[in-house]
Amino acid sequence: MESDLEFSNIVSVLKLVEATTQRTVMAKALSSLLAKTPPQVIDKVIYFLLGSLRPDWEGVELGLAERLTLRAISMATGLPIRQVEELYKKLGDAGEVAKRAAEIKRSKGGGGTIFDFIDTGPKRRLTISKVYDTLMAIAKASGEGAQDTKVKLLSSLLTDAEPDEAKYITRFVIGRLRLGVADMTILDALSDAFDVNRDLLEKAYHVYPDLGKIAKTLAEGGEEAVKAIKVTPGVPIQPMLAERLSSPKEILNKLGGVAICEFKYDGERMQIHKLKDGTVKIFSRRMEDITNQYPDVAEYAREAIDAEEFIVEGEGVAIDPDTGEFKPFQELMHRKRKHNIKEAIEEYPINLYLFDVMYVNGQDLTDLPLPDRKKVLFSIIKPHEHVHHADWIITDDADSLEKFFLDAISSGCEGVMCKSVKLGSVYEMGARGWLWIKYKRDYKSELSDTMDLVVVGAFWGRGKRAGTYGALLLAAYDPDSDQFYTVCKVGSGFTDEDLKKLPQMLEPYKIPHRHPRVVSKMEPDIWFTPGLVLEITGAEITMSPLHTCCSVMLKGDVGLAIRFPRFTGRYRTDKRPEDATTVKEIFEMYSNQKKVKLTDQVP
Ligand code: ATP
After folding, report:
1. Is 500 within 8 Å of 435 (Cβ atoms)?
2. What ligand 1 atom has the least distance to the C-alpha of 440?
3. DSSP assignment, residue 447?
4. Given ligand 1 and candidates 244, 425, 438, 568, which is best to mutate, with the most ligand atoms within 8 Å of its CB?
5. What is the pLDDT of residue 122?
6. Does the keyword Membrane apply?
7. Tell me, what's the pLDDT at 110?
8. pTM of the model
């Protein structure tokens, strides 16, 4: 048993995490669990806690529909399928059904009684390896008869499971573990459990976002082994992010007087990898493998980039085939529907605008300054109808920057990205820093920018909105404390269609109490695990005693809130909750807004 861990240990932690509203309790439970986990299985424990068999970018899916899990529950417990389906109707959660069915089986003497336990002894107790390996076998079953194999494998696992174990295994299978245990939470727990510097782990995570691998490397090889984790084609790296400012002068000042400025295209960010064996993979901003949606772009990259192995980055933009003009971001949504990719490729062609290179033929370029990376990038792009370098200038003049910005806007772009060219202008993985600064059109409208906020609660609607949500409680992210702070209650901007689908979209995130990573003074009618990210605009940012956002910075009992918040209609499914606008950004927007007001008053 020493090289394995009884699954019940994980279940105890899951129960605790599910019940608590305190982040410290959750963090302590996770770190104690990891501290006592044998190195051989620490990766499996972490994948289970995160609710995913492998890191998301590997795209491993169990492929077992909820209906089939009910069949497995019926097989494992001997309850007739009709009874299991009735339980499902009543309880509405396959996990609870699995638990209830196992309890019924136990009450009928069908296993799990005290005698059973003595009979078969500890042999029958599930371990994490048994659970994980079986789930992996379920994911791998393919071809004819795969569904039956999957159901049988699951039912064999559930047969050996205690009621609570059955509940969490089933939730995992249907993708509803959703405990709000995020990558950052695990990094904290690892750093605490192994008493290692968190920055070291975070750095490795930026280079190789696979917490199972990082944990195992740490547990088996110590800090040195973690430091040796390298950029690897085929494994996405955490994208570099930009800060924002609202005037060319400020931007040039911040960047040391001169900058490379590029169009900020309104499409989908693509990190494109070519491996030695010729495979091309495309990863999204949140590092999901989106190659299947863009086989055309993968082919263009293969044709247009002259290197055996590479990692480059660019924006894929939908183009009007008749005019060659850019189409808005929403057009790319047609690519998300899995079935008619071929048609979508014809109807919605895409151009790729490259703006960075991070790796070429065995060499990690992320530590090179931007001008050096650009040289490499220009040297490997061959002329191609659909692949170009992003439109760019290098300038030290605010008027030229403003003119370039207006050009970008009139070409249908969102604005410009201004990038540092100084010696230290490395590719900063996973960081939102001042080496890249975005300057967008909507900076000049009401609020200085839209914000991407996380839904953490909802209030029932009345009148016309009876039966659906009247408003949502939204929060910003604080990476330092790994918590979400509320910043507004938003009820406007939702279409009838939005209102109809929101309860459905949010159903999987529903929890009975405030999530331990949410800091809120408000008490909504429904709480959610932070998951869904929405784009919000508003009139201004004001102080508010009702919200908790930035209350730490304001050092008082007041926080910051968005006045007249409105949903822009954009669901940011390309962002994880941890990619939402941060409290620090909101504080900066608030401070800038104050500055603008003061200068407005100068005669
Ligand atoms: P936003 O919410 O403004 O779209 P974001 O939060 O997704 O931005 P940011 O770092 O704020 O990410 O802005 C950078 C985004 O702009 C990138 O993710 C990328 O998709 C897009 N982009 C378009 N053109 C460029 C460019 N030339 N250089 C870098 N990023 C670009």
Report:
1. no
2. 3
3. S
4. 438
5. 44
6. no
7. 63
8. 0.83
pLDDT band (50, 70, 90) for residue 579: very high
Closest Cα to atom 16 of ligand 1: 264
Compute, in angstroms, the gap from residue 113 CA to the centroid of ligand 1.
58
Phi, psi of 144 (to 5 degrees): -65, 140
Residue corresponding to tokens 């195992």: 216
Residue numbers annotated as active site: 264
CA distance 195 to 401: 48
Does residue 313 have its Cβ closer than 6 Å to ligand 1?
A: no
Decide whether any atom of ligand 1 lies within 6 Å of the 352 Cβ: no
Angle between helix 94-107 and 163-173 (nearest 10): 150
Residue 51: strand, helix, or coil = coil
Q: Is 262 in the pocket of ligand 1 (CB under 6 A)?
A: yes
CB 496 within 8 A of CB 594: no
Contact 377, 384 (CB under 8 A): no
pLDDT (tens digit, 9 = 90+) per residue, 412-461?
A: 788 999 999 999 999 999 988 999 999 986 544 456 678 999 999 999 98
Show the tokens assigned to 455: 């839904």
Structural domains of the chain sorted by starting position, each given as residue range(s) with its CATH number in brackets: 52-174 (1.10.3260.10), 241-441 (3.30.470.30), 446-597 (2.40.50.140)
Classified as helix, coil or strand, 273 is strand
Q: How confident is the model over 188-193, as a mean pLDDT?
A: 96
Q: What is the ipTM of this complex?
A: 0.95
Instruction: Dump pLDDT digits (tens) for 239-249.
Output: 999 998 889 99
The residue among 49, 285, 67 whose CA lies nearest residue 190 is: 49
Q: pLDDT at position 540, please?
A: 83
